[in-house]
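Data availability excerpt. The first of two example chains:
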Amino acid sequence: MHETERLSALIGDIYDAALQPWLWANVLENAARFIGGPAASVFSKDVTRSVQIFYQYGIDPGYVRLYVDKYIKLDPSTNSQLFASIGDIISTKNFIAYDEFLETRFYKEWAQPQLLVDSANAVLEKSATDVAMFTVFRHKRDGLVNSEMRRRMQLLIPHVRRAVLVGRLLDRRKSEAAAFADTFDRLSAGMFLVEATGHIVHSNAAGCVLLSAGELLYAAGSRLVAGEPKIDELLQDAFMAASRGDGVIGAKGIALPLTSRGGESYVAHVLPLTSGARRRAGTSYAAVAALFVHKAALDAPSPLEAIAKAYKLTPTELRVLLAIVEVGGVPEVAGALGIAASTVKTHLSRLYGKTHTSRQADLVKLVAGFSSPLIK
């Protein structure tokens, strides 16, 4: 199958998975093959170094459990992922010299036994304390992440992101297309089913409230209109694109920003309804797209970013600082990061100087002081 045909079919499957989460394993299998890897995952991490795997393909369940229980704390990619911006693609060389990576416990004990040598990681969503990621792993036989892998991954990121975010808005116990009306009406997010012209054919209770307020969106006759002209133009383009199929909508409308008169930030996501398993819902309502509107996630610096900025820490110094907090003393940190104990001591000395502390216990208290009190 030609790349364009493969891509179009894969995009359709991705959007179907937004409504039918059990399809994600198959979607990730096909995505991994398209991008160039043996395995893929959608997951989230937070500043406490805990991880939640939403969907995954190709990693042995035993190694998944080992990662969740142990190796998340030794993974040198975590800091870089928490710092990255939405849409960024990060590989090993972006956060650590590759020869140093090969000396880490994470590589020797978790990645190497699986013959995994690299990964391409894309940020789907982030807040002040956590980050959601889409990752495709790289096998030893294929070598490190290259420009072709990045190009192919970039083609899928907008669609994976839209599907994951829309899926999170839905009650997954009732997400089949046949149950759309019941599911949508129970959502706290505003939801509208629209035709290609923007004509509203259905809106849930929260959507009706948004229309009544008239701050973000309003109905011009029966047509859905955004209050900001530039955003409305993008919105109407997305509706028209959705009518022509999954592959046409592209990145437009993936995260359209909306602002209320009071300054509150919202985001709108468009899900095409003209293909695949979504077609039943679309034809039932004569709709080509579903628009979801919800408050934007908190967009503030994470504790890690705040610490690095406040004390002018280098990425390596930040890694050592967090390893001291998570792993323990100098010998343990050296083993976890794959560097000499003398190197850890050198970075530790610099950390003491920059943070005006003199003991490891003081560093632990410093990091704890920056962490959100809402994190348990």
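And the second chain:
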Amino acid sequence: MPWKAMSAMEQRREFVRLVRQGGVPIAELCRRFGISRQSGHELLRRVASEGEAGFEARSRRPHSSPRQTPAAIEAQILALRERHPAWGGRKLARRLSDLGVTGVPSPSTVTEILHRHSRLEAAGVERPRRWQRFERAAPNALWQMDFKGHFALDRGRCHALTVIDDHARYALGLRACGDETEQTVRGQLTALFRRFGLPEMMLADNGSPWGCAWSEYTALGVWLLRLGIELRHGRVRHPQTQGKDERFHRTLDVELLQMQRFADLVACQASFDAWRVIYNEERPHEALGLATPASRYQASPRSFPEQLPEPQYHASDEKRRVRWDGSLKFRGRRFKLSQAFAGLDVALRPANTDGLWRVFFSRFAIAQIDLSDGEASAQPVKDLSEQVSTMSPV
């Protein structure tokens, strides 16, 4: 069965890397990549026996010479700098070492070589900065997603959708989209979920399509909840909440968008695919101690369900179906929830306080209602740390 044609070479590399990292059965990864198990095992055997040549059909290209003179190493440094004009001495030295080059000089010496050959004039060279970083303890605990500001193509405009793993900084998705609609985002996320599995949580800003001004929940957010993925929103006017994705956008600007002009979305996506491989598998990452994101990421064992599951509740729960206008009726009163839940069942469970009830959608507490209050409204649960992880009554 043939490999799909985003880039056969890139997909083969990603497949082998995910298999080696474990966590997901080979048969499941074959299904996600759309290949037969026979094709998957054949690729693994070729790579095990042939190394790098195994990724190419009948490729027997010679490896680089193990004996390098200082002049040859300097030439390699300049060649790598030519490919990545935004990389400084630390990244270049680490990448050459990762490639197995012997006798690589120190980062400061690499920087001197760049100075000597007048290669440090390009904008975007990173300088070390000190700040405190926060990250999730494991891959797939949190994915950050956002649209980078759209930009002009020769024909049309590109809305770049980016999805980053919080722990590994792995670029799961870099997609050239023609718009920012809910249907477009759902289609792109579905493809990512089929490839990498489901995360525990996703972080987005408050803009469309994952947020809106008049409700805590949108159709996209409810879809994620049905998949068992909690959607969190960053603080209003605080883009640093999604700092890793924002930093990814700046890197994308410096290393790709400022250097190229794209004819259309197809050409733009081709460049995105090629650069994503460099970012994940080649480019040393400062926040990871100059390791690559690919070295810290592994696929999620939670597979994407092709049949969207219905929310499940306990027999003791008081279930209500949300009306077309987003309201529900409880104890003779009507409470406004959100139209995103229209036609779906929610469960109500009493809280410890008299007259206070919590509204659950699947395992997520989405609102609370106060029967002792004169106003018939459901207040959203804004402190997401109070979300419960089991179906037990509160």
